Amino acid sequence: MNKYLENVDDDFLYHFGFGLKTVDIPKTFADVKFVCTGGSPTRLKLYAEWFSKECKLDCSDNLSKSDRFVMYKTGPVLWINHGMGTPSLSIMLVEALKLLHHANAKDVKFIRLGTSGGVGVEPGTVVVTTNAMNAELNDKYVQWIGGKKVPKTRPTLSFLPFPNLIALANEKKIPVESGLTMCADDFYEGQMRLDGFFCEYKTEDKFDFLKRIHEKGVRNIEMESTCFASMTFRAGVKAAIVCVTLLNRMKGDQVKIPHDQYIEFEERPFRLVTALIKKYLGIN
Amino acid sequence: MNKYLENVDDDFLYHFGFGLKTVDIPKTFADVKFVCTGGSPTRLKLYAEWFSKECKLDCSDNLSKSDRFVMYKTGPVLWINHGMGTPSLSIMLVEALKLLHHANAKDVKFIRLGTSGGVGVEPGTVVVTTNAMNAELNDKYVQWIGGKKVPKTRPTLSFLPFPNLIALANEKKIPVESGLTMCADDFYEGQMRLDGFFCEYKTEDKFDFLKRIHEKGVRNIEMESTCFASMTFRAGVKAAIVCVTLLNRMKGDQVKIPHDQYIEFEERPFRLVTALIKKYLGIN
User: Fold this and answer.
1) A25 and A137: one domain?
2) How far is A282 from chain B (nearest CA, A)?
3) Which positions are tagged coiled coil (chains A, B) (predicted)?
4) B257: part of which helix (H) or strand (E)?
C-alpha cells in the first residue's frame, strides 16, 4: 500500500515500542489470523487471559514496549487495545497493519470488541454493527491530509459476512441486535449528553437527536467505528464491530452499573467473538 | 456552565472511576491550582514523582479508579494523562473541569506538557504554543453536535501570559521557540508521514506541506492543541501548551532517539513548567 515501505532497512513501530531491528517480527507474528481490539488496556488483557484459558493456548506477556498500547498474543489471536477516539485508534491500526505486513501474516481479520451507549436498546445488548455513521450523519471516515479534506472521503463498510454473528449470538443466548453504529468525536457534547461540563442544548434537543438517529437505524454510539471500518476496508482486511451497550441513552446519560454486572456485560462481546474465532479456526 | 449539573445528587466521573458519592471531592481537590497533563500515563506518573521530590510535597497514589487515565496529586498540582488525540483529551478535560467545579477549586490553570514533531526546529527544542491550528489550517476547534457543525466553531486562544515562559526557558538554559502548533487527527497521513501503512502522496507533497505550514508560523505538530486551547478558553481557565520536539520532520518521519536522550528531552518541558509553577506558588 506504501511504496516508501518497500525494502526498508528498519521500521520502528513507535507506539508499540519495537521495530524490525529489535524484534524478529516474522517469527513472532507470522501465524496471526485475528486481531481483537477495544479501548481499555485492562479489558484487552482480561480478554487475552480468558481466551488463553478457554482455548488452552499460552498467553504471552505484554509484547508492547511502549505504554501507549498493550499487546498480548494467544496462538493465532493478537489482543491490542486502541485507547479512546479515532485518532488513537488510527495509530494502533496503522502500526498493527505494518506489523502484519512485515510478519507476512496472511488473511488476518480485525474485530473490535467495544463498549457503547445504546440507542433504544436495553443495557447489556450486544450490537453487531452493519455500518458506521460519522458525526455529520453519513457513512464516511473524514480525513484531512495536507490541509485538504480527502475528496472521496473513505467508505466504511468492510464487515465479516461469515459466520453469521446474529445466529451465533442467539445460539449462545446473548442478547443481540444489529444496526448502524454512530461514531462521535467526544463523549459529552458530541453525543448530546446533558451531564458534561458544557451544555448549550436542551433536554428536548437531546431526545430529538436520539430519535432522529434511531429512525435512521442507529442502535449504539461509540467513538471509533468509522475509522475502524474505513481503514480495514482500505487495507483489504475483513472486520467486525461487536459492542455491548452499558446504558440506554433514551433513559439517561450516566453509566452506573454495579461492578459484577459490568464484568458480565464486558464478557458478552468476548463470548460471541470467541465462539466466532473457534468456529473459524476449528477449535473445539 | 451547565444548568443540568446544578444541585445534582450524584455525578459519576466515568473515566476517572469515581464520583460525588464515592469520594469526598471538595476535601481531596479543593486546593488544586494547576492541572498538568500530557498523553502518556507513565510520563505523567514520572512527572508527579519528580515534582514531589523537587518541591518536597507528598505524591498521592493513583487517584483514578479507572484504567482510562491516571491521576496523581502533589499538593496543589494534579497530574493527569489524556491519551492520544482530541477525543480522548476532551473526555479528560470535561471530567477534570467537572471535578474542579465540584471541589470548589478556584483559579486553576491547565498546562499540557507534550511530545511533538518539530517543523524546522532541532530535536529537543521546547515549543511554547502561541496558538493552535487545526487540520483545515485555521485556528478553530471543530465540533459536530446533533449532526451540525457548531456554527461559530470554537476559538482556541487561552494562554498564560505570565510569567514569560520564553524568558524562563532561557534562564534555565532550555532550548526554546514559540510558534503555532498544528493539531492533526492522526499520526501518519494527517501529518503527511511517508512511513505509514497508507501513503497516496509523494515525498515532494510532504515537503511542500511542511514548508507551507512553517511559513504560516507552525513550529511543531501534535494531536491535541486545538481541543486543549479551545476547551480551556471556553471554561475561562488559563492554559499553556509546552511540547518538546522528538525529531525535525524536515529531516525524517521516524522517532529514533536513544533512551537516555529521550528521558532528557522528556525532562525539558517538566523543568520549564516546574519553574513556572514554583514561581507562581512561591515555592523555593
Assistant:
1) no
2) 31
3) none
4) none
A151 and A267 in a single domain? The answer is yes
CB < 8 Å from A in window 237-256 of B: 254-256
Looking at the complex, does the CB of residue A138 fall below 8 Å from at least one CB of chain B?
no
Q: Does B41 touch chain A (CB under 8 A)?
A: yes
Helix, strand or coil for residue A104? coil
H/E element holding A98? Answer: helix A86-103
Using the Cβ of A235 and the Cβ atoms of chain B, whether some distance falls under 8 Å is answered with: yes
Q: What is the CATH number of the domain that holds B270?
A: 3.40.50.1580
Same domain assignment for residues B205 and B94: no
- Of the candidates A88, A101, A196, the beta carbon closest to that of B83 is on A88
CA distances to A270, B22, B71, B264 from B41, in Å: 26, 23, 9, 18
Residue whose cell numbers read 458478552: A268
Note the ipTM here.
0.96
Last residue of a domain, one of B89, B107, B125: B107
**Residue A40 shares a structural domain with residue A69:** yes
Distance of CA A217 to the CA centre of its chain: 20
Return the biggest CA–CA distance within chain B.
Answer: 58
Q: Which of A42, A43, A197 to mutate to test the interface with B (most CBs of B within 10 A)?
A: A197
pTM comes to 0.96
Helix (H) or strand (E) holding B7: none
Binding-face residues of A in 190-209 toward B, CB within 8 A:
190, 192, 194-199, 201, 203, 205, 208-209
Which domain, by its residues, includes A233?
114-283
pLDDT by residue for chain A (284 residues), tens digit each? Answer: 899 988 888 999 999 999 999 999 999 999 999 999 999 999 999 999 999 999 999 999 999 999 999 999 999 999 999 999 999 999 999 999 999 999 999 999 999 999 999 999 999 999 999 999 999 999 899 999 999 998 666 666 666 654 588 999 999 999 999 999 999 999 999 999 999 999 999 999 999 999 999 999 999 999 999 999 999 999 999 999 999 999 999 999 998 889 899 999 999 999 999 999 999 899 87
- The verdict on A177 and A268 lying in the same domain is yes
Same domain, A220 and A166: yes
